[in-house]
Amino acid sequence: MNNRLLHTHAEDENGDLIHVDDAVKGVRYICADPECRKEIIFRSSGKTGKGSRRPHFSHKKGTSPNCSPERALHEVFKKKLIDLLEKYKAENRPFIFKWFCNACSCSNSGNLLAKTTSIKAEYYLGECRPDIALIGEEENVLAAIEIVFTHEPEPKVLRYYQDKRITLIQINLTSDEDLNRIEEKAKGPDIVDLCLSPRCQNNGRYIINRKVLFHQKPCNRCGSNILHFNIEKDSVFGKQTSRDFTEGEINLVKSKFTNIVLATDRDTKERYPAMNCLNCQRIRSRYRRKFRF
What we know:
293 residues, alpha+beta, 3 domains, 5-stranded antiparallel beta sheet, 5 helices, 30% strand
């Protein structure tokens, strides 16, 4: 796979990233590999078909023996992802992403930028420098985005994130084609070291505040107002509601309210507390008395 990896981006003399589709022959470009930064040439044969190479940037032979297309891919992806996240933040739009917990396979979702006030590249943390750090209003690091092509984060880095309760988000790259789907990759990362399910063994690793909510809503049968219950979960990725009650939370509802029964969510199969409608009970009771033999 590495042999087919090409330089598809370079910087112009203003420091702006240029894709090969927008490159012009004869213009001076700089290699995107941060450890190279030498001049790079736009090459396009104009040919298609078997044996032809797609347009790309390359060095003159022998001018940059230590240049790494892998490092360039990593750097370009990082810069473009930061630009994307900054755009969402400036427009005050939620960046909704989804992931599966590696520990319990539970499906999760959240707003990546819910509590982010700033986005930093290579933010110095003493023990490590995450590729992208999401910073909260108290200047604390909420989440670290690591972009991986070949080298996984070192064990000591993972331990540091866990000890400091910094949520790890890992995005794995496989080819330069990933640069064409940055938003897709970011909205479906390969690893997120956080699970919102109360039944996950890793749930207690990070701060997730849970609160029982109730509100009035019409009964589906008769329209009378009854109480409906949900759980509000508040994490680094914002607030969201669900019906994944724990036994303790179900017992809390039962202790505070009357006419509580257990119902099952059709989609998640989770058991949750529901209130019996007293009006429906009275109607059924009158009906039974009327037609009693």
